[in-house]
Amino acid sequence: MNFIKNIFAIIIVASSYQMAIAQPGGGGLEAGEVEVIKEFDARLLDTEKLKVLPGLPPLDTASRKLNYTIPLKTVPIDYPDPSLRPIAIRKDKIDKGFRGFLKAGYGYPSSPYGEFGYNFGGEKKNYNLGVHLLHNSASFNNDFENQRYSLTDALLKGAYYLEEGGMAVGGKIGYTVDQVHYFGYDQTGGIAADTFLERDQIKQQFNTLGVGVNLFNGERNDLDISYNAGVDFYTMKDNFASDELGFNLNLSGTKWFNEKNPFTLTVRTDFTTYNDTIKQQLNNFYLQPNFTFHGDKFRVKLGANLVSFDDNFDLLPDLEASYAVLGARLAVFGGWKGDYVKNNMNTLSDYNPYISTYGKLDLRNTVYNQFYGGVRGNLGIIEYNGQVGYKKANDLALFQSDTTDLRRRFITVYDTVDIINIEGVITARPFKNFELTAAVTQNIYTLKNQEKAWHLPNFDLNVSATYLTMEDKLRLKAELYVENGVPYLDEDGEAGNLNGLFDLSFGADYQVAKNFGIFLNLNNVAANKRERWVNYPTYGINVLGGITARF
Fold first, then answer.
1. How many domains does the chain have?
2. 469 closest CA partner among 518, 437, 432, 436
3. In the prediction, which pLDDT does 20 show?
């Protein structure tokens, strides 16, 4: 307030001084002088400072409950696909393997052996082509004249993969010469005492030419469908003016669901025309659909086999189911399956090389209807598979010696047979590089018309062992074959049993160098001369050794 008063005082004094100067000299106030004793000094008096001490407000201990309402809202978020960037690793040198092999040897009795195979093409080429050649023969100089055989086989097979569409074309052509001799004729007297047979009279040679072509998908397609369309043709001739022509057409496709459940549909034809003194035809048509479902522990196959033959139509089952009780260690399975098996010159001569052809061959279908069940599993060092089954066979082929034939060839007789089958396989690997396998089969036949199942074995046992040593260069093997003596009819029509088979063999092959090796096989060291077919004994002990090469 004092400061404001001083300002007003200064203003009033200044105004009075101006007014005094502005008064006219002739009138108004009188002139005079003003003496300033002291200059004006404006000052503010010192103020007293108020001291204010800060302090915290009292705590609010009241409890408050707050409620919030948040609306739900789904916000779409697009996640980009992750990209994996592999870490670079050092590339190991990959062994390219070998394209070809050669195996050649000679044995006792006189038995040359040769085998050759080579595969053309490769990973960077869109084709592959393979060739395989085989020759094996033996001639035995013993009590049986002309006890000899010869087999020569040549096969050329390949495929070409088209660059677009994933389609591929395959083809094959093969030629086989299978030669045997009917040395089972009486060479000591009796039925052939006044008869001398030249070698050309007892030599049988089957010449077979086979050609096939097929179209299939060479790679997986977007529809997960695999397909195959093929045609196979063969012509077969023997030394006794018999010939056979076979034609097979196969169309099949498989659609995969969830990459593990396939549905397959197959349409197939199997035509056979046989000529000797008369013409026989055996033509089968097949329609075979099936679907297989794979679960976590079980697998089920549902299918059918529809067969048409000679104006007859037959519906056969194709059913199978399995369940993993203890994972891979134990699984149970069972099924019901039916099929047609053709008996013609091609199949019968393959099973019995001493079959009589010209004027004696009878072509038929064997119709099978089989129920089976069993167990299988893998226990680490042991794998096993065993089953029991019942099979009904209509027109099962049996074999009898034709005693009216000087060459002692065989003819077929057919019968309806009930078969109880028991079989099992065990493979053991108790330690590294050693493997032991044993397989046993027991058949019990019940025939409708015939007394016995002529020339069909009902028991056989095969045991084999292999051991790899010396840094995988030496492979040792041993094999045992045991089979019961088969029943037969003698010249008087009386039933008998031939001697059984006990064949013990040993073998070894040694890889001398990367591309060169040697082998030696000692076969039938027990010198068992069992007759698989009456009047036709086996060769006894025989030896074969030679060299191997790969390139």
1. 1
2. 432
3. 43
